[in-house]
## 1
Amino acid sequence: MSSYTCSTCGREFSHCALLRNHIKVHDNAVVDKALQKISEEEEQACEQLEEEEELSYDEQLEEEEELKQLKEEELSYDEQLEEEEEFGYQK
């Protein structure tokens, strides 16, 4: 009687069909590991993207604050010029 040996785990089977069924166990385990790895990589990529978006948002807020400050300084300067013109001051 021939025996059929699983090349992955070494288990022996008396029929080729039994070995073919058994090999599916290993194939499924490999697929499950691959899917798990892909899932972990996707999760890491999402986390990294969220961090980048958060940094981008913070930078945008900083730029808006700087722009607001520049506008306030410009308004203050314009008011000062108007005041000087009103009172006839010249530099």
Note: Helices lie at 16-87.
## 2
Amino acid sequence: MDGQECGKCSKLWEATEAERTAVYDKPQCKHCGVCYDFLRSTLCEPCKVVQPGYHDGEAVLSNPSSESAKILSHGSSVGNATRSTAATILDRRSGFTSIASQHHLNQPRPQNSSLLSASEVNRKVSALKARAKNSQVDIDFSLWVYPAQNKQVTAKRAKIPPSHCTFPANESARGALQQLLLKSKGMYCTIPVQSTDAIPSEILDSMFKFEAATFCTAKGSGPGGTAVIEDQVMDGSIEDLFVRLKHKRVLSDKDGSAKVPRITLHIYVYEIEWDNEEADNSPDIVETRHNSKGKSRVRKSAPSRKRKRSDSKDLASATPGPSTKRALYQSEYQRRPSAQGSAQFSFETFKFRQTTCTIATDGTIEPTHCEDLEEISIARNWQTQHRAKQLGGGYLGQGLTKLAIRGRYKGLDYAILQCKPISSSSNTNMKDLSDELCLLHKAQYFMDSFYKRALAHGVKGLPSMKWNIVGAFIGKLTDLLPPAPTDGTDDNRSLLYDVFLATPLLPSGALYREVKFSGNEQPGNNEDMIGRVVDAYSHHVLVDSSPDHSVTLFDPQAHIESQDSGYWDKGPDQIQLFQALHDCNQFCKALELEQHVPGFKH
């Protein structure tokens, strides 16, 4: 040891009686005698460089060139007589200050379990936010209309506000554009009618056909501010469309530099001439400015309505004269196969015979049985998602009493409905589904008479509404189904009963929004325009179905005086409740419905 006494002894001289125990407990180097608070071995770090130990009272250094050896040799050269213990310790401390500082800086900070969990949650949330920004595409769009008058050569912007929609990055580009066109059509129908004549629904359907519309990106204002999106560019997802448009440099600077992929669109449609005087029976529809070749050319500006002289002659010759018998309009629209191919789902094929309904002019419904043998495909393993309460695969959803399963019939997507096995049997399943099909036909019958009443009273501007009845049918399997398992294993059969109700599957993309207008026991008093028209339709059904006063609510469900339309029917009590709670709106009054059933609340 250097000096006359060790470090612990020097501290004991100055320590009080109460501090002596703490001094004795301090770790001490057996070589140099210095006390360290956190010494874990018998020697301190400087003394560990001495190898192999003491020989005849002299220290042997294993590495004389090391920093510690220099410090020790320097302390030894001074001698015990001329150098105190404190000075020796000070020299040693200065040599290891930097090393000790780095050691303490690199120690991990201790965290409790709560802080660790919070840090992990924050990390996952940040990752999800970053992923969400890159997994969607924003689209801002506006509607532009080419007037049917020949003097107009430029499109006019429709009086609807600019709209914004967000689509998943993997959404079909063509499907997304179709949804935008349908939304534009709905907004266009809400514009206040400028003239006394409302545009018929078949005219609007032709105006907003996907093949007739032109989609352009908005690069900026002025000439060359738009660029047509070609048909082949629409293949793939909406993210692929964004990448291609950005690569072609047809996006605005704002869209191209946005953190979230964004496209600004102009949608161009063409007005169609129609004869208002004969629109009731034989509408005269001539599409005067439909540019059928617009999508095959690359244009850097909005599509022009100028036509070749030969095209004008063809249009003129196609227009019937005053003495020519006008042809009835026939829609060219065809239901397109689903974008989701059968590769995404596993189907099981069943053979069945079909039953539909026919309804007479007086509202009498008669079932029609077809003896032809047909095939339908039902999604497999949908009960796995149903048990997990997760929509997906072949499981479409459920209501209070029925399950909805994905099916395919003649290349089209269908919703296959069957009653839940817990509350139904094979007989009740067949009766409930048959009642619902008949009710769908009766609801559409009253929908048709609702528009006839509007036409008779001169009410215009009503939105186009219809029930999902076209293509609906009851199917009965020709082969027996295997029984449900009784050994406690999961039931994974594709069909639960041999009778099912099939209705066309409605599109449910990013713009789909489900609205409930009324309940089985809650007559609707809606505030928006479409909801008020639906309320007026309910009022019309009550008046038009006299003398049995059936009120069609919307699932569809009905209440009639005989109380035998289905399990949902509550009979005259619910009819009286509708009369008490219904508030006649402007459509009811325009159709003079309040005059037919006295006692309504106004």
Note: The longest helix spans residues 426-456.
